[in-house]
Design a protein that fits this description.
binds beta-D-glucopyranose; single chain; D-Maltodextrin-Binding Protein, domain 2; globular; 3 domains
Length: 406
């Protein structure tokens, strides 16, 4: 009986706990992560929030490393792509395979997404969404006033930007942070070069592709875009660039669909106040947000991890979170009926792209390459964007940086 009492007391005390490290701090992002916090609390969990501001997650990843090195990893971490495997290889990730099996994740997820979430064949991370990276966002009124439509080729984009510039409007809202430069760069790369070029250059890191005439043309277009950005872009956060499009100071932003979450959080309506279009040339660059669980002690923490994993893949969460976040659900069985035309386009294009081989992992958002290689490319892109380096010099520097990172 004493044993039963002890067990009973223990069970009553065990309460799911999670310290969650993430970088969702902008208006749309905060609204989205709140959905998970609320669901976690409603199931009796205690959430300790560890937000680390900084778009793209660079600062969050630095904070994570410090925490793990000091032997004090958070219970759950916003982590994605090959970085999940890199942390697994350090021996610090927990296994959530039992939750995944109990909830049929293998049937609910596209195989490519499931693969990103697995460590040695077992689930170690849970996916929340699919973001498309290569989008242009436009201010509907500004474009109507200028008599312009959303551009469908880069030449059209350049011509529209010149018209806007003549009207005193900043054509392209951009924040001068290296991951934002990388976002624009890879969107041009897939558009101008196509899927095979993107794969050869930015996934397989093939030297001939990295130094090709196509890559020179990609840098040429990036140089042209640099001329459409205002003088104060340096260090600007991505959501402040989105705000410039919202208030009509700028016409376009090239950014993943987390920007849509920002427009929506401000009460703006897609198709009326703002417009979306894939960046010219097509291809679908995907970016799947996910949470990896780190090895922690204590039943309350383990319960917290399992509960989080279950909620993240829940049907309701996948719908509500993604309505706020600008992305589409990772789960295949969540209908897009409640979503807007941009999400509908994303879902449709993803299907088409997956059928014709142009569904590609985003290098700029940590889906395609390991940290060292992605960092080498981004450093070169940023150095180019912030200097008068020629495109020919840029491709030489790019190939060398990649080689040195291996
Ligand atoms: C993440 C998004 C996030 C964006 C801006 C991307 O890398 O996948 O979830 O909203 O960065 O911080």
């Amino acid at each position: 009986m004493a044993a039963a009492m002890v067990l009973g007391a223990g069970a009553a005390l065990a309460e799911p706990q999670a310290e969650v490290l993430h970088w969702w701090t902008s208006g749309g992002e905060a609204k989205s992560v709140q959905v998970l916090m609320d669901e976690f609390a409603s199931r009796g969990g205690t959430w300790t929030d560890m937000p680390v501001a900084g778009g793209g997650g660079d600062a969050a990843m630095t904070a994570l490393r410090a925490r793990v090195l000091s032997g004090n990893a958070p219970t759950a971490v916003q982590l994605k792509g090959p970085a999940i495997q890199e942390w697994y290889e350090e021996g610090v990730l927990a296994n959530i395979n039992a939750v995944a099996m109990a909830n049929n994740w293998d049937e609910l997820l596209p195989e490519a997404i499931a693969d990103h979430m697995k460590c040695d064949g077992e689930y170690c991370a849970a996916p929340v969404n699919v973001h498309r990276v290569n989008w242009i966002w436009g201010n509907a009124q500004v474009l109507a006033d200028a008599g312009l439509e959303m551009p469908t080729t880069w030449a059209e984009f350049n011509a529209a930007a010149e018209t806007l510039q003549g009207m005193g409007i900043t054509p392209l809202a951009h924040g001068g942070q290296s991951w934002q430069d990388a976002t624009v760069f890879e969107s041009i790369a897939v558009g101008l070069g196509g899927a095979d070029f993107f794969r050869a250059a930015l996934i397989d890191l093939d030297e001939a592709a990295l130094t090709s005439d196509t890559m020179i043309a990609v840098f040429d277009q990036l140089r042209i875009l640099r001329g459409f950005v205002d003088d104060d872009f340096s260090g600007r956060d991505w959501n402040l660039a989105t705000a410039m499009v919202m208030n009509g100071e700028a016409a376009f932003q090239i950014m993943g669909d987390w920007a849509k979450g920002e427009f929506m959080a401000a009460g703006l309506v897609p198709g009326k106040d703002f417009l979306c279009a894939p960046t010219p040339g097509g291809g679908y660059l995907y970016n799947v947000d996910s949470f990896a669980m780190f090895s922690v002690e204590g039943q309350d923490n383990i319960d917290g991890q399992n509960l989080l994993a279950e909620l993240i893949m829940g049907e309701n969460f996948q719908e509500v979170f993604n309505l706020n976040k600008g992305s589409i659900p990772a789960r295949l069985d969540v209908p897009l009926d409640a979503f807007d035309y941009c999400a509908g386009r994303s879902g449709y294009d993803m299907d088409v792209a997956s059928g014709n081989g142009s569904l590609l992992p985003s290098y700029a958002h940590g889906m395609a390459l390991r940290g060292a290689q992605a960092g080498a490319i981004t450093d070169t892109v940023t150095a180019f964007f912030n200097s008068d380096m020629s495109s020919a010099d840029a491709v030489t520097a790019l190939a060398l940086a990649v080689k040195n990172s291996m």
